[in-house]
Amino acid sequence: MTQLEIQQFPLWDKLKAKRVPLSFDLEITARCNNDCRHCYINLPANDANARARELTRDEIFDIADQAAQLGALWCLVTGGEPLLRDDFTDIYLGLKRKGLFVSVFTNATTIRPEHVALFKKYPPRDIEVTIYGSTRETYERVTRKPGSFAAFTRGLDLLFDAGVNVRLKAMALRSNLADMEAIAAFGRARTKDFYRFDPQLHLRFDGDPVRNEEIRQERLTPTEIVALERADEKRFGALVAGEDKLINAEFNHVGCDHLFHCGAGNGSFNISYDGTFRLCSSLWAHGATVNLRATRLRDAWATLVPRVRDLRSRDPEFLATCRQCPIVNLCLHCPAHAHLETGALDGATPYFCAVAHARAAAIQND
């Protein structure tokens, strides 16, 4: 059975035009049992301070009620590793009982038979699991946790054996680059429905300089990224087929100084583990967030979102380059990522720019 995305429903465009928040991401913890080299959020599983800052179950339900009242239909439960929460089952069932479609992002290493029974009786819309390696050596080079590969494969097998709808994905890193072909085969052998990989890494939400340097070390070169994308026939074929939309020689935003041309805050939003409301998961800039422990969701949606989306650049270099770039649709640059990289919403991001130009050259020369 083919699964429809929310964007495929006929009313999607109409509701989006009316700024109805149809979906939201809910990070119920930043804690994780792995210590992945590239991760932008993870804190130790036993971090008492992080645990103390987490939204309570009742706070989560209150936010979910507010979201549903605004029109939300779909909730993504993520982390950190959400299954680390002792009250995960209560949270999951509570969200389902509110009538929400619920998806879960997990590393699968903490999946137990009781989780499988829960998902089998009350099916999620889907569960997404990341593959860090096809072997113990590669997987644990990324996670830095002995025994995590065995736990991952055991959890994944439990989910598949129970018929739970699982979607697989991978991060392309320096630490697993040599294994990417085998990772793809591992994923495709287990699901005919979904497998994707992401080669672009963004920096930490907390700005940790040591962890940020680790992330930079894990980034692939533009040439390596293009080679991976070329090797994926379906992915590269889609890029070539979309050339007219992805590369626009007449693209011109002269006179447009708006920073936000993405979908952040149009039909979705993100809630951090401590209740911080953001237009998207990456947007942590000062003045672009508000905590829902002190503000109602309706007010954040009605006032903060339009104000942030109306922010403008006064940087002549940005307006003369990125704002007029004909290959912007091939680039990971956005205000949120620019802020994580440079501290400015319109800061220059040379790495993302180089990747975009390498992609454009590959598409045009195909």
Order of helices and strands: HEEEHHEHEHEHHEHEHHHHEEEHHHH
Please report the distance between the alpha carbons of the first and last residues: 34 Å
Q: How much strand? A: 5-15%
By DSSP, the count of extended strands is 11
Count helical runs. 16
Output the structural class: alpha/beta
Helix content: 40-55%
On the 0-100 scale, what is the average pLDDT? 93
Low-confidence stretches are: none
Cα-atom Rg, whole angstroms? 20 Å
Main sheet characteristics: 9 strands, mixed
Main β-sheet, spatial strand arrangement: 8-7-6-5-4-1-9-10-11
Dominant shape: globular
Q: Any overview of this molecule?
A:
By secondary structure, this protein is an alpha/beta fold. The protein is built from 16 helices and 11 strands. The chain has a 9-stranded mixed β-sheet, covered by helices on one side. Strands 2-3 form a two-stranded parallel ribbon. The longest helix has 15 residues. It is globular, with a radius of gyration of 20 Å. The model has no long low-confidence stretch (mean pLDDT 93).
